[in-house]
Amino acid sequence: MTNLFQTFSADFVSGFKYTIYASLLALIFSLIIGTLMAILQLSHNRVVRHLAKAYVAFFRNIPLLIIVMFFYVIAPMYFYSFDGFQAGTIGLIIYTSAFIAETVRSGIQTVPKGQMEAGLSSGFTYAETMRYIILPQAFKIVIPPLGNQFINLIKNSSILAMVAGLDLMYQGDLIASTTFNTFDTYIIVGLFYLILTLPLSYLMNYLDKHWSNA
């Protein structure tokens, strides 16, 4: 295993960098979109509420691979050509945002309704009350499930390998097909994923305990 890593270290590290980049982009934008969709699902506007619920229901219930393939195969035929990295990352963002939306929505609904009423009566607008009062409390409540979504996102980033996204799994597949040493190759790939997921897991556990005692 050591010799394999030394020989292909540049390829493993290159794929690892792409995995980190895709995961960070997907994490940031899926959190933003998911939070927005969570708020819109609770909107007093029926049309907006139903559109947001349709978005969440649709993308939660179709495979991630289909979303990625839409941007990689179908989109270039009609409006824009995405490379593998772009298609995979966009797919990750859309797919994960639907799950985050449900997580954040449940957190918002857990906050007592009196908090919203208190904010509005204090002169805050609905958006300001949501931003400064409701969402901070909601995020404290949903830290564990959000952490699970972030970890799943990192693991799901391996979907980029299906569209030549240059990520860690893609490089692992190339190395395994070249050396025929699949066991050692995927052990190394798995260890690289652990480098990302384990610290994130500990961080989310720390934040959960810290904010629970705050």
UniProtKB/TrEMBL annotation:
Q: Which UniProt keywords apply?
A: Cell membrane, Membrane, Transmembrane, Transmembrane helix, Transport
Mainly resides where? membrane
Membrane-crossing ranges are: 20-42, 54-79, 85-104, 186-207
**Membrane topology, record value:** Multi-pass membrane protein
Record InterPro entries: AA_ABC_transptr_permease_3TM (IPR010065), ArtM/GltK/GlnP/TcyL/YhdX-like (IPR043429), MetI-like (IPR000515), MetI-like_sf (IPR035906)
> Where is this gene product found?
Cell membrane
- Entry-linked Pfam families: BPD_transp_1
| Domain ABC transmembrane type-1 as annotated: residue spans | 16-204
Q: Would you identify the family this protein belongs to, as annotated?
A: Belongs to the binding-protein-dependent transport system permease family.
Q: What is this protein called?
A: Amino acid ABC transporter permease
Q: Which organism is it from?
A: Enterococcus xiangfangensis
